[in-house]
Amino acid sequence: ETGVTQSPTHLIKTRGQQVTLRCSSQSGHNTVSWYQQALGQGPQFIFQYYREEENGRGNFPPRFSGLQFPNYSSELNVNALELDDSALYLCASSFTGGAGANVLTFGAGSRLTVL
Amino acid sequence: QQPVQSPQAVILREGEDAVINCSSSKALYSVHWYRQKHGEAPVFLMILLKGGEQKGHEKISASFNEKKQQSSLYLTASQLSYSGTYFCGQGSGGSNYKLTFGKGTLLTVNP
User: Fold this and answer.
1) Mutate which of A89, A104, A110 to test chain B, going by most B C-beta atoms within 10 A?
2) How far apart are CA A90 and CA A95, in angstroms?
3) Interface check A90 vs B, CB under 8 A
4) What is the pLDDT of residues B43-89, one digit of tens each?
5) Buried/exposed code over A7-38 (b: 16+ C-beta within 10 A; e: otherwise)
6) CB-CB: which of A4, A41, A45 is closest to B99?
7) Per-residue confidence at B95, pLDDT binned at 50, 70, 90?
8) What residues of B are in contact with residue A58 (Cβ under 8 Å)?
9) Contact predicate B104/A44, CB 8 Å
10) How many CA atoms, within 13 angstroms, populate the side-chain half-sphere of residue A23?
11) In angstroms, rounded to a whole number, what is the distance separating the alpha carbons of residues B65 and A104?
């Protein structure tokens, strides 16, 4: 089974620009969650997508948006980049619909640097 | 509120044991444990569910005290490969499932 893949792995942007990060979920998973991990911190929940709709959102402004596609892959878009957006962005896929709590399978992340 | 992990960092020699604790100020539906090595994806270790169900790996054990809203991860006979940052995440439950992670515990295992 394939794991979660994210692209790009690293990117540098300047303040005010826009960025799109991509994620392919693990085979058999139907839900994608995005997390932001600042240096030395734990991952912080941004939002989750299920059935191509946003299904829960953390404390992030509307300039953070996303999409989920019919093949369950996903995009994270960030507009009007700020310096504090510099972080590792982690995508995690899971299966919604089974019994019990969802196990998240994380990708290795996209490292975003905003100058 | 994010869960509080302790200790923040621990250094072991190979073969020694360690306990990592995770405390929450709110009622826990589930606790998830992940390990992240530098530059890599967090890797699932264990889920503990309200009611006592556990899912995880054979060589790692954990406890979940619902009353105290605490969980502990037990690493016995540590190996070099155990090095990394350990995160506990509290599960929200419900259909829009999300995890709120602690700041992590850095574990270093030396030869």
Assistant:
1) A104
2) 17
3) yes
4) 999 888 876 666 666 678 888 888 888 999 999 889 999 999 999 99
5) eeeeeebeeeeebebbbbbbeebebbbbbbbe
6) A45
7) low
8) 98
9) no
10) 33
11) 22
Shortest distance, CA A106 to any CA of chain B (angstroms): 6
3-state secondary structure string, chain A? Answer: CCCCEEECCEEEECCCCCEEEEEECCCCCCEEEEEEECCCCCCEEEEEEECCEEEEECCCCCCEEEEECCCCCEEEEECCCCHHHCEEEEEEEECCCCCCCCCCEECCCEEEEEC
Q: Return the number of other C-beta atoms located less than 10 Å from residue B106's C-beta.
A: 17
Cβ contact B104–A90 (<8 Å): no
**Beta partners for B44?**
B34
Cis peptide before A8 (omega within 30 of 0): yes
- Our CA-based measurement puts residue A89 at a distance from the nearest CA of chain B, in whole angstroms, of 11
- For an interface test with A, the pick among B30, B90, B97 (most A C-beta atoms closer than 10 Å) comes out as B97
Q: Which range (A56-60, B28-32, B84-88) has the least confidence? A: B28-32
